[in-house]
Amino acid sequence: MRRVYLDHAATTPLDSGVLEAMMPYLTGEFGNPSSVHGFGQRARGAIDEARARVAALIGARDSEIVFTGSGTEADNLAIGGVLRGAMLEPDAERTDLVTSSIEHHAVLNSAKGLDRARHRVTFARVDELGRLDLKDLAAAVSENTALVSVMFANNETGVLQPIDEVIRIARAKGAYVHTDAVQAVGKVPIDTRRLDVDLLTLSAHKIHGPKGVGALFVRGGTKMNAIIRGGSQERNRRAGTENVAGIVGMGKAAEIALSRLAGDADRIARLRDQLETKLVATGRGAVVVNGAGPRICATTNVSFEGVSGEDLLIALDLAGIAVSTGAACAAGSPEPSHVLKAMNFPRERVNSAIRFSLGRDTTEEEIERTVDAVTTAVEQLRRGGGGPSTRRPEAGV
Ligand code: PLP
Question: Which residue CA neighbors atom 7 of ligand 1 most closely?
Answer without folding.
Answer: 397
